[in-house]
Design brief:
alpha/beta, Rossmann fold, 2 domains, seven-stranded mixed β-sheet, globular
Length: 334
C-alpha cells in the first residue's frame, strides 16, 4: 500500500509533539511538518501537497482551505462548536485525543491520493450536458467536481460555455480583473500546454481547480476545448467539463470524454430532449459513453448556488453526489 503524507495544525506545542511522535510511529504515515496557526497550515499544505491534514478546531477555523488534502479534526474534548467547525470544513472525521488516536491513525493512513497519471496517461474526462435548459447542468458539474476532490482525486472543472459562463457565478467567483480566465489563454491557443493552464486555473476552497469562462461572451472560445482536455488529462485524476447548451459546440468535448452525464429532470419534455440527444449521439457512435442522471435536487438546495455556495457534503444531495463521484472515478471509459 502507498504511504500517506500528513501535516499537522495544532496550536498546543506539547500536543503537537505528542501527536507527531505517535503518527511517525505508524508504518504507512509520513509527517511532513507541523504548524501552530491557520495561515501557517494553509501555506504548508500549498507547498507540501500532503494527502491529509490533522488539525485542531482553532487552527481549522483560521485556515483558508485544505487545497485538496483530506481533513481530520482532533480535539481533547468534544464541544458543539468543535463539531460544527469540523462539519463546516467538510472534515472526514472528528477524533478525541488521546482516546481515539488509533482510529485517527487508521483513517489518516487511508487518505493517500490516487496516484497521479504519468505524462501521457489517462485521467478521467467526464462531461456534463443538460438535455434541456434548467436541468441542473451547472449544479451537477460544480458539485461533482467538489465530490471528486473530496474523494482524493486531483480535479479540474472546465467551463466550456464561453458565452453564458455560468460556473463562475455558481461558485461565487467575483467577476473582476484579479481572477484569471480562459480569456488569458488566447495568446497561447496555438501552443497550449499544461504550464499555460496551471497559471490561470482558479483554486476553489473545496479542493478543486477551475478554468473559468471569459468574463465577456466569447464565440468562438479563446482556446480549443480538445486541446484544453488533452493538456489537463495527463495531470489530473478527473477533468469535469461543463458543456454549453448547443450541441455543435459540445460535440468536440463529448468526443474527447470518457464519460458523458446527460442531466434530466422528472418531466416529459426533459426526457423527450434527452431521447433526441442520445439519438443524435448514437448516430455519431458516441451514445455508448453516455449515462442519464436524474436531477432530484430540491429547489432549496439548488438556490444555494444563487448565492454562489456549494452544498455541504453531509447534505442529502451531497451524499448522493459523493456516491456518483466514486462511480465515475471507478468506471472505465467506453
Amino acid at each position: 500500500m502507498s504511504e500517506t503524507t500528513v501535516v499537522l495544525g495544532l496550536e498546543d506545542r506539547s500536543l503537537q509533539e505528542e501527536m507527531l511522535r505517535f503518527l511517525e510511529g505508524q508504518p504507512r504515515v509520513r509527517v511532513l511538518g507541523a504548524e501552530d496557526d491557520g495561515p501557517g497550515l494553509a501555506r504548508r499544505i500549498r507547498e507540501a501537497h500532503p494527502d491529509a491534514a490533522v488539525a485542531s478546531p482553532e487552527v481549522v477555523r483560521a485556515a483558508p482551505d485544505m487545497n485538496g488534502a483530506a481533513l481530520y479534526v482532533v480535539a481533547q474534548r468534544e464541544t458543539t462548536e468543535a463539531l460544527r467547525t469540523a462539519i463546516r470544513a467538510s472534515a472526514r472525521g472528528f477524533y478525541l485525543w488521546p482516546e481515539e488516536r488509533e482510529a485517527l491513525a487508521r483513517e489518516a493512513a487511508s487518505a493517500a491520493r490516487p496516484a497521479q497519471a504519468p505524462e501521457g496517461g489517462m485521467g478521467r474526462v467526464v462531461s456534463v450536458f443538460g438535455a434541456r435548459g434548467g436541468a441542473g447542468t451547472t449544479f451537477l458539474a460544480t458539485h461533482l467536481a467538489a465530490a471528486c476532490a473530496a474523494e482524493g482525486a486531483s480535479t479540474t472543472l472546465v467551463d466550456a460555455d464561453p458565452f453564458f459562463g455560468d460556473v463562475g457565478p455558481a461558485l461565487g467567483v467575483a467577476p473582476n480583473g484579479a481572477v484569471r480566465t480562459a480569456a488569458d489563454l488566447a495568446e497561447v491557443a496555438d501552443e497550449l500546454a499544461w504550464e499555460h493552464l496551471d497559471a490561470v486555473l482558479y483554486e476553489h476552497p473545496r479542493g478543486f481547480r477551475v478554468l473559468l469562462a471569459p468574463p465577456e461572451p466569447a464565440v468562438p472560445a479563446p482556446a480549443s476545448l480538445p486541446d484544453v482536455v488533452a493538456a489537463l488529462r495527463p495531470r489530473q485524476d478527473a477533468v469535469i467539463v461543463h458543456l454549453p447548451r448547443w450541441m455543435d459546440a459540445a460535440l468536440p468535448a463529448i468526443e474527447a470524454s470518457d464519460l458523458v452525464l446527460v442531466v434530466v429532470t422528472l418531466d416529459v419534455l426533459a426526457f423527450r430532449d434527452a431521447r433526441r440527444t442520445l439519438g443524435f449521439l448514437d448516430e455519431q457512435g458516441l451514445a455508448g459513453k453516455c449515462r442519464l442522471v436524474v436531477n432530484r435536487s430540491a429547489r432549496a438546495e439548488v438556490r444555494a448556488q444563487d448565492r454562489g455556495e456549494l452544498l455541504s457534503p453531509r447534505s442529502r444531495a451531497g451524499a448522493k453526489l459523493r456516491d456518483l463521484a466514486g462511480h465515475v472515478l471507478r468506471e472505465r471509459g467506453a
